[in-house]
Amino acid sequence: MNKIINKLEANTPSKHIQQHFKELLNIYLHNPCFTDAAFLNPPNPYVRPLRTSDTLNINYDSAVALPEVYTNKNLIINKLLLNIYEQDLLFLANGNACEAKKDFANFYNPYYTAIGKALLPKLEQLAFNFLKDEIEIIGNWTKPKLLDYLINTILEQEKETSELCEAIVGSNNPIRAAKMLLIQMAPDFLSEASAMARALPGSFGIEQSELMKVFIDEYGYGVHETKHSTLFEATMLSANLNPTIHYYYNDYLATSLMLVNYFHCICKNKSDWFKYIGTLYYTEASIPHFNKQISKTLKNILPNINTKYFDEHVHIDKHHRRMVLEKIIATSIDKYGEEIIEDILFGFEAFKLLQNLADTDLAKQIQFSDQLDESYFPSNYTLLAESLTFNETELEITSAHLHADDELFQVTRGELIFYPNSLSPIILKANHRIVIPKGRLHSTVSQSANTQYVVQPIEISTGA
Fold first, then answer.
1. SS3 state of residue 388
2. Local structure of residue 66 (DSSP, 8 states)
3. Res 96: pLDDT
4. Which SMART domains does the entry mention (predicted)?
């Protein structure tokens, strides 16, 4: 009998998927929507290139640790997660192009979506396991203690000014910085509350009805013009940005995707329900203060911008945070006992951490763009390893990626366009060199028949 049990344990679904993960991933990447593409801005919502070589060669044996959040590994894992989650969502491209119809069929191919679902548990563990290491729940928590902590944490935050808003205002190019913020918001806000929709089916009492009230608000009470994603489309258009779903896919920072993916993760996995309501409270409670600052910042920088999306949330989310606290969190503790408090608190702290990481990431990307404007180059640095030489043909694309070290980047022949963002690319010609800080997103497009460039890891001396 013991031999039979041991054999069954050795063939659990998780172990089987672990053993065949790379094989399944390789099949998934054969979907034409995910193969390397000859453009930076996808033509429709279904085409989402995944840098196939990088995706197949990163280390999937260990989860992303906190110091690895701003790495290529984390970017790839979160792009995979986004694409797999969103194969459950319906996106209809505008127009009737034959190519879009083909991409539509490929993106939603049931065999690829089934393989994606098999990959999800491991990818989720790789992306979010570090939260368990970073968040420690200490002491005995009661309902009054929890509610007091949640309320007071938000009240303390509301005494502070947004460092991200300060980074935007302090940028050499605040218009670009403001638009970079909107682009990072796009993967969430253009299909807002889609993750929440995963949490609604089933039967779980009054809390289900209260959550539905929040959901109905997000969808504009069935009026398309007041749906929150429609409001954000108007914001994008007023800033001269393209509101097409994932038009700026190549610009997405890993940490921006983590915000979207974490909601999908805890809404999909029903055992994480109590973590979800903690996460939901943090986002609903923190948004009014943040959006009030964002609205003011955007109006000062872009006088013609439509900020109704942000202004609406200043009002409605004050109502939502009260609903979530009093009619979902408090009632759940009354029903299921104080043992659920740790999960609620974990979800609250997890999203607070993820939001801070995303804000820091974007501020650094804004700074990187500013440095390129200034032709910044360090006065002192040390070479850490041998250089690598790359040769590219005309219009060959190297899509968005990150480096683990600061890198010296020098064009030695020909010409290329370097993109620290979609908004302000720079042209690099032969003998032109720049420094790409570690963890900074970038992509390139060769402009010559035989472009050559060299990259070399460096260590920049303090104060250089």
1. strand
2. G
3. 64
4. Haem_oxygenase_2
